[in-house]
Design goal:
The complex is a heterotrimer of chains A (about 130), B (about 550) and C (about 290).
Chain A lengths: L12 H14 L8 E2 L2 H8 L3 H13 L3 E4 L3 E4 L5 H24 L4 H14 L8
Antiparallel strand pairs in A: 1-3, 2-3
Helix pairs in contact in A: 1-3, 2-3
Chain B lengths: L3 H13 L5 H5 L1 H4 L18 H23 L12 H30 L7 H19 L7 H19 L22 H26 L9 H16 L9 H14 L1 H23 L7 H32 L30 H37 L3 H4 L6 H20 L1 H5 L6 H16 L4 H27 L4 H21 L6 H29 L2
Helix pairs in contact in B: 4-5, 5-6, 5-8, 6-7, 6-8, 10-13, 11-12, 11-13, 12-13, 12-15, 13-15, 13-20, 15-20, 17-18, 18-20, 19-20
Chain C lengths: L3 E12 L2 E12 L2 E6 L6 H9 L6 E6 L8 H5 L2 E4 L11 H9 L7 H11 L12 H13 L5 E5 L7 H16 L4 E6 L2 H7 L2 E6 L2 E7 H6 L1 E12 L8 E16 L2 H10 L2 E8 L2 H9 L1
Parallel strand pairs in C: 3-7, 3-8, 5-6, 6-7
Antiparallel strand pairs in C: 1-2, 1-4, 8-9, 10-11, 10-12
The chains are: A mainly alpha (about 130), B mainly alpha (about 550), C alpha/beta (about 290).
């Protein structure tokens, strides 16, 4: 699983893991029903304390992004649920916030951004995934 | 900005501090030879005491030369600095020569002052400076091949020849008492020329050697020793079995101790004896009187036995103080937590779940086995000589001018070798730490005072004191080990029993040559050999935790 | 006694005049990774030597698995796997020899695990340790410490002087060890990104004193870097309760704050300032600000 951890930014590691998993789910690279690596395997791969991964998985479960099944695995939850959608929206909102900050810093207005979005949307055709 | 020379001088003095005095202080024991002459009123011509002078002078030159060399340290620490080789070598060569000369002159002057012997100064000082210079090319280069051994021997012979010649000792028989001998009172022009020549040549050679070393030219080629080592290593690699099998932790400890600490003792003894026999065999084939070679065999066997003792002592001392010898090399290389190998015990062992008791018993057993091995080899060699001499009809006791029968001599040599080498290999663990106890020193002083009060002769008092120290330590450690449960009562009884048995046997064997000093000496040695059994475990326990 | 693997109480240690440890108390529970942080010369190795029984406690007490390591070295050391800072192994031995040798001391030695580690670390069993590079020798040390599956794994500066590849080996070994229940890892390091990745609990040792001893999360949660914008310009940094470091000029000043966030908000209000930017800190910054 393509997750990178860095200790420089001041963001707690469990949070980084959570954010990246959420992004993977939101962007469709992790689909509903896909199994996440076991806590121990991911901990060994990233070289972090297993408790950190365990915490990340716990929090993701609370937010409904993943679910634990009795066959002792962790799987991506159904993305159709409103909770999951809300989470994905949160990820998107972060991107939007960043975009807006940059826009104002560079001296542009909201209309400029909207125009840019419309122009780019004509060029690319995103594949439709579940709503 | 101060000059380079000023910096080098400062470095020399700050780096060494107290060590600068050691060569001078080290000569004090040698000075004891002169004790009888101190305070005598009549002047003694140095002519009478040429032999003593020569010994003293040689010791003096050796100690001071080694001392100055050691304080200067290796030149390697300057190789990467922007200083030319010429400058570097000149500084250390000539300042070294100066220091040697000054210290020798000072010591000779002191001796001249304290005793009525008018020792010559100029000649010996010149000699010492030439000795210093002569050995610089050897010591300042890379000593990889074994060629330096014969070269050193040759140089030593030449220098000794010069010295003896200047003392007027001719090479023919007659030795010390011929009328031509005279102390080296006058430094002749010939002397100065020889000295100048020798110093110039050796200076140039030193320059060359250091330049080679600095450029790293020496390191490319493999010397003979390294080639042999490599060949052995390759062979071992091929023959290496997949796994060792250790029956128990005690077994593995013994294997470790043998490999790490004392495995070389029987090897050294065996190689000397085997080489000796081979050389002897070769000589016997070519000589007209092969039977006369047999006493030589006794000679080198005896040498091997004594060497076992010497080797154990050296190994124990290096084990205890080895890390500080490195200081003379490049102190900068020694990090703060440089591991001291405690008496030859690798500190790695102390991180393993090993009790001090099991470590002690492993060490005792290994030491005993290796010393016994060496002794067995020595005894076999003695026996072979006896067996060879019987059919030929040589009476070995007569041939060797011994006062005791040959068998007694060989048995005594072997026993002394065994006991003393065993005792010495533990002297650093079992004996030396005990000397740190102040209560012991108080008892010592009291005993000495009592003995002096009783007006016993000096030597006997000394021996009584030594014996009492060792016996006292033995009793103390026996009680301590019984209390600590390091030793079972049965084992302690066995050790004491064997010790007393050997003592009785020895005393019985030398009953013809009874002498209080000798008796005390023998008893002290045996007690010293018993001591490790009781004191090693506790010594290790203390050493483990600081 | 509760299940503290290491219980150190009021330990003091001096070497001559120099006081190396002062009133150090640490209680390390079973399971998990404990990181001891400190700069060079802070006293970490000395503390570890007390745990191993190489130093006796001049004052205070040390208890490992409930035993005094000085009085009962065998009991304590048989449960410990130790990798020293200078990787002190007898260099004259071969890899296979040191494995066989060490095996005889530990009842719980796992030979198949040792074999796996040999393959994993790419070691040649017949090679002599003194002919190996530093990294390879470190791997041998690690192997010998791990193969008997110790209850307590002690690593003293495991990564110092080693290349990134061997560092990964060591760190993954730590992860693997903690994943097995009930086993504890104690490692000291001045490489803080490693400690941040791996430790559950940390303690900061500075000049012989323990500055903090807490879970890593609590420690990091109590620090933050804030930039405050004041209503007036100040020539020098205005005081802020709970701040450890600050810099800035005129109206904007950046502080490293330790404590409750509510306290910070209150203090900012009292000082007529507005919080402009707020960051959490990583362990490196926390350490620097504590020790500064």
């Amino acid at each position: 699983m393509q997750i990178q951890i860095q200790t420089q930014g001041g963001v707690p590691i469990y949070l980084q893991v959570m954010q990246q998993i959420k992004y993977l789910v939101a962007s469709g690279r992790l689909q509903t029903g896909d199994e996440l690596p076991s806590i121990r395997a991911l901990a060994e791969e990233l070289i972090v304390n297993p408790n950190t991964i365990a915490r990340a998985y716990r929090e993701l479960e609370l937010e409904g992004v993943v679910e634990k099944r009795r066959t002792s695995g962790t799987f991506v939850a159904d993305s159709g649920s409103p909770l999951a959608r809300k989470e994905r929206l949160k990820v998107l909102k972060q991107r939007v916030d960043h975009l807006l900050i940059e826009t104002y810093q560079m001296g542009f207005e909201l209309d400029d951004v909207v125009k840019l979005l419309q122009q780019s949307a004509i060029g690319s055709k995103p594949t439709k995934k579940g709503s | 900005m101060q000059s380079i020379n000023a910096s080098l001088t400062w470095e020399y003095f700050s780096r060494n501090r107290w060590l600068l005095l050691t060569p001078l202080l080290g000569n004090i024991p040698a000075s004891f030879i002169l004790l009888p002459f101190m305070g005598l009123d009549t002047a003694i011509a140095a002519k009478e005491l040429v032999a003593i002078q020569l010994i003293l002078l040689l010791c003096l030159v050796l100690l001071i030369g080694v001392g100055v060399q050691a304080t200067q340290g290796s030149l390697r620490r300057f190789y990467l600095k922007p200083i030319s080789t010429l400058h570097l070598v000149s500084f250390y060569y000539w300042t070294g020569a100066f220091m040697v000369g000054v210290q020798v002159a000072a010591m000779l002057g002191l001796w001249r002052f304290l005793t009525p012997i008018d020792l010559p100064i100029a000649g010996p000082v010149l000699f010492s400076i030439v000795c210093w210079g002569t050995f610089q090319p050897i010591l300042r280069g890379v000593l990889k091949s074994l060629g330096w051994i014969p070269i050193s021997m040759a140089l030593l012979s030449i220098l000794d020849f010069w010295l003896l010649y200047r003392y007027g000792i001719p090479l023919k028989r007659g030795g010390m008492m011929t009328p031509e001998i005279h102390p080296w009172n006058h430094v002749s022009i010939a002397d100065l020329l020889i000295a100048a020549f020798a110093l110039a040549i050796s200076f140039i050679l030193t320059l060359w050697r250091v330049a080679q070393d600095r450029a790293g030219r020496e390191h490319g080629k493999l010397s003979l020793v390294e080639r042999v080592d490599q060949a052995i290593e390759k062979l071992q690699f091929k023959l290496f079995r997949k796994t060792q099998w250790f029956a128990s932790s005690a077994h593995s400890l013994r294997w470790f101790d043998f490999n790490h600490r004392c495995g070389s003792i029987p090897a050294v003894v065996a190689s000397i004896i085997i080489m000796g026999w081979m050389i002897l065999g070769a000589i016997a084939i070519f000589s007209k009187d092969p039977a006369s070679c047999l006493p030589v065999a006794v000679g080198f066997t005896y040498l091997a036995a004594m060497l076992q003792i010497f080797y154990s002592i050296i190994a124990a001392i290096i084990g205890r103080f080895g890390h500080s010898i490195n200081q003379f090399e490049v102190p900068e290389r020694i990090s703060k937590d440089q591991k001291v190998t405690l008496f030859g015990v690798s500190p790695y062992l102390l991180t393993l779940p090993v009790s001090s008791k099991s470590l002690a018993s492993a060490m005792l057993r290994t030491s005993f086995m290796t010393c016994a091995c060496g002794t067995a080899i020595v005894l076999s060699s003695f026996t072979i000589v006896a067996m060879l001499s019987a059919p030929i009809g040589i009476n070995l006791s007569e041939a060797l001018t011994l006062k005791i029968p040959y068998w007694k001599f060989s048995l005594l040599t072997a026993t002394i070798s065994l006991i003393v080498s065993f005792a010495s290999s533990f002297v650093a663990i079992s004996f030396l730490p005990l000397l740190n106890r102040f209560d012991l020193w108080i008892v010592l002083v009291l005993v000495f005072a009592v003995l002096l009060a009783l007006k016993l002769p000096l030597s006997i008092s000394l021996w009584v004191m030594v014996f009492m120290i060792v016996l006292g330590l033995l009793v103390y450690t026996t009680i301590q080990s019984l209390l600590n449960n390091d030793m079972s009562s049965a084992k302690a009884a066995i050790v004491w029993g064997i010790g007393l048995g050997i003592t009785t046997f020895t005393l019985f064997a030398i009953r013809d040559q009874w002498d209080t000093s000798r008796v005390l000496f023998a008893c002290s040695l045996i007690a010293l050999a018993m001591l490790p059994y009781f004191s090693t475990a506790e010594g290790l326990r203390r050493a483990r935790t600081s | 006694m509760s299940n503290f693997v290491i219980d150190i109480k009021n330990l003091c240690r001096s070497f001559g005049e120099k006081e190396v440890l002062h009133d150090v108390s640490l209680a390390i529970p079973e399971g998990g990774v404990f990181g001891l942080i400190g700069s060079n010369g802070a006293g970490k190795t000395t503390l570890i030597k007390h745990i191993l029984g190489s130093h006796y406690a001049q004052s205070g007490s040390v208890s490992v698995f409930g035993f005094d390591p000085v009085r009962e070295p065998v009991q304590v050391l048989s449960k410990i796997g130790y990798m020293s800072e200078d990787r002190d192994v007898p260099s004259w031995m071969r890899v296979q020899e040191i494995i066989d040798f060490t095996k005889s001391f530990y009842a719980k030695w796992d030979s198949s695990y040792a074999e796996d580690l040999i393959h994993l670390f790419e070691l040649n069993p017949k090679q002599r340790i003194r002919t190996m590079s530093r990294g390879q020798a470190a791997r041998v040390c690690l192997l010998v410490a791990l193969a008997h599956r110790p209850q307590l794994l002690i690593l003293d500066e495991p990564s110092s002087g080693l290349d990134p590849i061997i560092r990964r080996d060591i760190l993954s070994a730590i992860v693997r060890t903690t994943a097995e229940d009930g086993r504890t890892v104690f490692f000291s390091s001045h490489l803080l990104d490693e400690v941040e990745r791996l430790a559950d609990r940390v303690a900061i040792l500075h000049q012989g004193r323990i500055l903090f001893h807490d879970t890593l999360d609590s420690l990091l949660a109590s620090f933050r870097r804030v930039t405050l914008r004041f209503t007036e310009s100040h020539a020098s940094a205005p005081d802020l309760a709970g701040s450890l470091m600050c810099r800035g000029q005129d109206r904007e000043w950046t502080y490293v704050h330790r404590g409750d966030r509510e306290q910070l908000v209150q203090a900012a209000e009292n000082a007529n300032a507005q919080i402009v930017v707020e960051h959490s800190l990583n362990l490196d910054d926390v350490f620097v600000s504590c020790v500064h």
